[in-house]
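Appendix B, Record 12. Input sequence as logged:
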Amino acid sequence: MPPSDPDCLVIGAGPAGLAAAHALVNTGVGSILVVDRDETPGGLPQYCRHLGFGWGYTHRLETGPAFTRRLLGAIQHPSLRLLARTTATAIRPGPAVDLLGPECGVITLHPRAVIVATGIRERPRAARLVPGSRPERGVMTTGQLQQMVARGVPVPGRRLAVVGTEHVAFSVLLTARHAGQRVVAMVEPDERVASYAALAAIVRHAARIPIHVGTRVVNILGGRQVEGIEIDGPSGPARIPCDSVVFSGDFIPDSVLAQASGIAIDPRTRGPVVDQHGRTDMPGVFAAGNVLRAVESSGFSAIEGARVGTCVAAYLGGSATAWCAASRPVEAAPDFDYVVPQRWTTDDGRLPAIPFSLRVRTTGAPIPIAVKIGDRVVWSDAARRRRPHRRIGIPQGPIARAAGDATCIEVCTTL
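Logged structural output:
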């Protein structure tokens, strides 16, 4: 049966979308429709059978499938309907949303509010400009490997090289173990491992997996099947025999739908511009989760989704407004890669706000952080070395108290 116009349409059934739906159910929103283009809801965690998911949201250390089951169990309610294999193809002012799927056909819905939670995607080998031959088998991204293992699809070969050392790259080691693969090397172009040093030490010494830092992949060898990779680093050129190569990380927001729909996109995050309540510049359309920036943990994304869901419920109940054109810009200095949210609104201070996501551009000398409103520093943090893959938290209380007459909120390195 085709769906009717819901009070809220959630696009994406990953951690952010499911947590937003849970918040909507808890606040008594009349009708909720969640759609996802995948065959089953849950997002990336459903394909990751190792521990490490949802801690910030559930305060439990769970596997990806267990975290997914918990999220899905929480939204079982007569007011909510979930449609898998259903793609949103356009969002227009109103809002109006075009959907395509086996259960709904081609249909246009007119929900009162929309939450975009389409998550992230990985850039493949070609987008990373890695030279070399083009083997038919054995070149994958993390997501491809995880889905193959979860679906029981044989992974080619037995020896695997991982390109990248952020948190997700280390999860590949566990996925590879489930697939019967042996990881023969990890390659990191930066001078330091992107994830925790203690984790890297365990991998090096306990698992005996070499980690090549300051090193780039300069060639992929093979015809029908990957035969090896050529690397170049501090020790000079070298060849690593392997059957498969997994390119990990280098995530970008899956914001094609938002961008094609005319929603303002931040060129630094490549995701929608939002205020601290998740409102985009299209009235009635909100966004949450890793579609805003890549990449935060599943637990962080769920927290963000829940807060945006609560804000949407307030909007539907008439106690919150749509996008406020008078919101103040939040601007990050060039030393930083990005900051989210990019706008700050003072009209709804009682609503929950999404946590700040701030990242440095590169690893370098220790830098201080200051938040300025006009000429006044409202918060600062001492100089310390920052890592590009680590979120920098900024408390929102000082900003909320001082932003009333501000024209701009500046995140900078100058006190």
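The longest helix spans residues 298-316.
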